[in-house]
């Protein structure tokens, strides 16, 4: 693929290694890295392919010492805009960041014809006990598809004080009690098409509670009414998290790929947005503007944290359930297609 600016820093011997692959793009993720690797190793990952966007917190050095990690770096930066139409006519002009291109490049260079999982470092797939990623892939093969949707479920502590920064109660991903909004977030389409939003999620609940939810443009509201979409959100809750690429497949953006997707399986992605690591991420995003739409989401998050601090309110609500409870994930309709 053109525009390939990725080069291997360490772990080159893993290029043709067999087994299941997890692909990620990161910058300064030491808070998540140990738990992320441990979690995915336990559910069947054999190798990790990670692009480092110039971390300076020890993340790259940590990954360089891992036996099952191939580490890459790039000349460009995570948020650099790319002319999508110059790469492929299926891509939109002005909507592609280099990070999206890297995901397609990694799949085409290292994973054509084999299953791989795409995940950010704060995203943890929740599977039933005894279920592995290769086992999930086998079920998709039997269904005759090459991809499965994941649903982004924001997880959160009960109170703001548990996030720190520096508070004694601040907890790691594998510590303490994490909650999620136990309501169906997405409706799958029988043909595997883009899922429809059923519930906008915890962040939008919190934004609305504190008057921070933006009103979608009129054109988008009218389009949603025509298509029968009842719930609009600026947060995209679906993600083609598990996929088997052919040589011409690609990610059109973070939330859509060209592979045929399952209309039966939905994988819950526990999204650890509200952790002690959020403070530094918000600070970097506001200073750099490196994320989508000038880091607009992080401006909202910053305002939300300020509102929670001022009011003394917490994150939890009446529909909050333990994020580690597979039965609650299944009952809420956010885990489908697995026994």
3D architecture notes:
The structure is a single chain. The protein has 339 residues and is an alpha/beta fold. The chain has one domain (6-331). Helix content is 29%, strand content 21%. The protein contains ten helices and 17 strands. It has helices at 33-42, 59-64, 84-87, 98-110, 133-143, 202-209, 218-227, 278-288, 292-311, 326-331, and strands spanning 6-10, 21-26, 47-52, 69-74, 81-82, 96-97, 115-118, 123-125, 147-154, 179-181, 186-187, 196-197, 238-244, 251-253, 256-257, 266-271, 320-322. A nine-stranded mixed beta sheet has the order 1-4-3-2-7-13-9-16-8, sandwiched between helices. Strands 5-6 form a two-stranded antiparallel sheet. The chain has a two-stranded antiparallel sheet with strand order 10-17. The longest helix is centred in the C-terminal third of the chain and has 20 residues, at 292-311. The protein starts with 5 loop residues before the first strand and ends in an 8-residue tail after the last helix. The relative contact order is 0.17.
Spatial sequence of strands, sheet with the most strands: 1-4-3-2-7-13-9-16-8
Shape call: globular
The H/E string reads EEHEHEEHEHEEHEEEEHHEEEEHHEH
User: How many domains make up the coordinates?
Assistant: 1
Mean pLDDT: 86
Q: Distance between termini?
A: 38 Å
The radius of gyration over CA amounts to 19 Å
| SS element count, helices | 10
GO molecular function, one term: glycosyltransferase activity
EC number: 2.4.-.-
Keywords: Glycosyltransferase, Transferase
Protein name: Glycosyltransferase family 2 protein
